[in-house]
Amino acid sequence: MEQHSIPSTKVQRAMRFVKTGAQIGGNYIKHYSKKMVDPSTSKDQLHEDNATDVYNALSELKGSALKVAQMLSMEKNILPKQYTNKFQMAQYGAPPLSGPLIVQTFVKAFGKTPQQIFDTFEMKAANAASIGQVHKATLNGKELAVKIQYPGVADSIQSDLKIVKPIAFRLLDMNEKELDKYIKEVESKLLEETDYELEYKRSTEITLACQHIPDLVFTNYYKEFSAKRVLTMDWLSGLHLDDFLKTNPSQAIKNQIGQAMWDFYDMQVHTLKSVHADPHPGNFLMQADGKLGVIDFGCVKEIPADFYLYYFALLIPEVVQDDTTIQKIMLNQQIINNNDSAEEQQIITTAFVKMTNLLRAPFDVDVFDFGNNAYIHQIYALGEELSKIDALKKSKEGRGSQHALYINRTYFGLYSMLNVLQAQVKTGERNWKAPLIQFHLGN
Amino acid sequence: MKTQLIQKYIQYTLDHNSTPQSVYLFAKHLDMVEQDFYNHFASLESLESHIYQNWFEATMEQCSQSEPWNSYSSREKVLSVFYTFIENLKSNRSFVQFLKQRDWKPSLQWPAYLKGLHQSFLSQIQPILSEGIATKEIEERKFIDSKYVEGLWLNFLFVLKFWIDDTSNAFEKTDAAIEKSVNLAMDLMGKSPLDAALDFGKFLFQNK
Question: Chain B within 8 Å of A146 (Cβ-Cβ)?
Answer without folding.
Answer: no
